[in-house]
């Protein structure tokens, strides 16, 4: 594409990591953490301690995403790397205060009734108290993580954003998965596998380091399994997670049917890995970034004028960094700046319909941030499950509005893209869940070789995709950055939760003129309630497998539509 794609404007947040504004906020955050500690030592009321900790968190939630965002667009920049290292130190300092706060709140639980708006926080504190080591060991763990797991995470990001094969970076090669030309997709896939094999030793060491650390610390803290801590962090009951996974497993025959339909639409006997996200139908169509803006703004506006105005502002004020370039991380994300009351979106826009929906997805996150921007940090920290609900709801808004504008022929690639995305979120996510579960099992026994990791990944893909494809991707463990974060294991099922919960919500919105306000209210509660409780606001029981299967039925109807094109 010849179009000049935008870079985000970060100067309204801070001029630079060396600026007085940024450095003063770093100092202010340390000072507020010191003040919080002193308040606890002097036995001040819990309410006062909470207010001070909120103030510290507001600044931390501004400086940290700023440093990380800069590094994500220039991963070899020494200045940004140094800034992120200092953020890691600040997190160690915050973590010590936060753990002390958990103990302090527990010791002052007679004051809980005076602060009822924090009831979810207090409930979680009572659970966390039973999953803490001694203060000395927790302090040591915080320092240890700053020089271990976070370093492994950065190693994976640095390697995967800089390696190349045949003149293309890994990010560029992975982007070719959506190229209409099958020969190009196959060539890019083979080069991707080859370059990952060349660098498997470093990536394998990183994943061993992260998962080994998780197992060590969670055993010490009394968690039976990493999935238990993950469900707790996601604010869903284990019963709800089991219901979701059960529904995903029951959906596999449906998606295998979809893969067979897609193969026929592409004139193939069977799909290979490099065909899974390939376009179908009028696949040559490319969208400019201005096209993406028009589609997203108009679609959001039809659902909610407020949402439409919000995303229009994001486009017009350079909130989005869209250009793929060397040194920039792959994928896409949204990040919010609590003190500045704004968000920023990173993506790698390639003109495909998928990249349009990716922007819609991330702006769904950004709208969620907007809804909670004035709510204190300790009341607005929502889990990944509900974060993904907001983003996929945004995608769904765009998808349904697009269908209303298109002819039958034009609908084919759009419907296929929707089902393809659903397959990724249900089938591929389930394979990642299986892989991570197996990886933890093997890591308990000792170091896991790269060869074994590839074997585990192939087993997971065969269990989910089955014989619907004939070539798999053994190195998916190397390219998915979510595996490399210590703080949240099983960073996969929240996407399936979000997809199916959002579809269920959207179905309930049909025919309700006031649903936009209900939706906004629901988002505003996501930091104050568990996912189970938030779902109940919409009359949904997420512990009922039947709810998840109803959402899958919505996807099934679009698979029926695809079959009509054969």
Automatic annotation (TrEMBL):
Keyword set, alphabetical order: Hydrolase, Metal-binding, Metalloprotease, Protease, Zinc
Gene3D superfamilies assigned: Oligoendopeptidase f, C-terminal domain, Oligopeptidase f, N-terminal domain
GO molecular function: metal ion binding; metallocarboxypeptidase activity; metalloendopeptidase activity
InterPro entries associated with the record: M3B_PepF_2, OligoPept_F_C, Pept_M3A_M3B_dom, Peptidase_M32_Taq
SUPFAM superfamilies in alphabetical order: Metalloproteases ('zincins'), catalytic domain
Ranges for domain Peptidase M3A/M3B catalytic: 176-553
Sequence similarity: Belongs to the peptidase M3 family.
Protein name, per record: M3 family oligoendopeptidase
């Amino acid at each position: 594409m010849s179009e000049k794609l935008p870079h985000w404007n970060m100067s309204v947040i801070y001029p630079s990591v060396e600026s007085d504004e940024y450095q003063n906020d770093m100092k202010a955050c340390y000072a507020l953490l010191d003040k919080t500690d002193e308040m606890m030592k002097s036995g001040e009321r819990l309410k006062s301690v909470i207010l001070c900790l909120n103030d510290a968190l507001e600044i931390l939630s501004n400086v940290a995403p700023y440093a990380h965002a800069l590094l994500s667009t220039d991963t070899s920049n020494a200045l940004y790397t140094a800034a992120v290292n200092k953020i890691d130190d600040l997190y160690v300092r915050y973590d010590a205060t936060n753990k002390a706060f958990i103990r302090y709140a527990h010791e002052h639980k007679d004051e809980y009734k005076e602060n009822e708006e924090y009831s979810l926080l207090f409930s979680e504190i009572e659970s966390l108290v039973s999953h803490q080591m001694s203060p000395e060991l927790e302090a040591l763990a915080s320092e240890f993580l700053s020089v271990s797991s976070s370093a492994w995470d950065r190693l994976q990001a640095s390697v995967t954003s800089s390696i190349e094969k045949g003149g293309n970076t890994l990010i560029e090669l992975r982007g070719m998965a959506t190229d209409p030309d099958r020969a190009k997709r196959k060539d890019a896939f083979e080069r991707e596998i080859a370059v990952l094999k060349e660098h498997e030793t470093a990536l394998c060491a990183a994943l061993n380091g992260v998962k080994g650390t998780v197992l060590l610390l969670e055993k010490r803290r009394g968690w039976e399994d990493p999935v238990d801590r993950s469900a707790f962090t996601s604010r869903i009951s284990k019963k709800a997670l089991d219901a979701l996974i059960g529904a995903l497993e029951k959906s596999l025959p449906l998606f295998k049917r979809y893969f067979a339909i897609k193969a026929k639409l592409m004139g193939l006997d069977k799909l290979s890995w490099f065909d899974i996200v390939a376009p179908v139908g009028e696949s040559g169509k490319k969208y400019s970034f201005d096209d993406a803006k028009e589609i997203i703004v108009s679609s959001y506006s039809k659902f909610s004028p407020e949402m439409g105005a919000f995303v229009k502002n994001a486009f017009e004020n350079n909130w989005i960094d869209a250009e793929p370039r060397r040194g920039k991380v792959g994928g896409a994300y949204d990040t919010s700046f609590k003190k500045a009351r704004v968000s920023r979106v990173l993506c790698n826009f390639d003109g495909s319909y998928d990249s349009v929906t990716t922007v819609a997805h991330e702006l769904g996150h950004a709208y969620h941030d907007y809804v909670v921007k004035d709510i204190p940090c300790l009341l607005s920290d929502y889990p990944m499950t509900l974060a993904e609900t907001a983003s996929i709801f945004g995608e769904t808004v765009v998808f349904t509005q697009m269908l209303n504008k298109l002819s039958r022929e034009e609908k084919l690639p759009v419907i296929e893209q929707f089902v393809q995305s659903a397959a990724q979120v249900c089938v591929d996510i389930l394979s990642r869940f299986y892989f991570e579960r197996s990886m933890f099992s093997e890591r308990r026994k000792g170091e896991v070789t790269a060869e074994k990791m590839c074997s585990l990944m192939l087993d997971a893909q065969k269990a989910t995709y089955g014989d619907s494809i004939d070539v798999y991707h053994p190195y998916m463990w190397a390219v998915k950055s979510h595996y490399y974060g210590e703080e949240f294991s099983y960073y996969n099922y929240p996407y399936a939760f979000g997809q199916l919960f959002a579809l269920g919500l959207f179905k309930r919105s049909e025919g309700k003129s006031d649903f936009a306000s209900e939706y906004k209210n629901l988002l505003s509660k996501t930091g104050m309630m568990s996912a189970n409780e938030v779902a109940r606001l919409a009359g949904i029981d997420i512990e009922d497998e039947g709810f998840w299967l109803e959402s899958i039925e919505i996807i099934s109807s679009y698979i029926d539509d695809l079959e009509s094109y054969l």
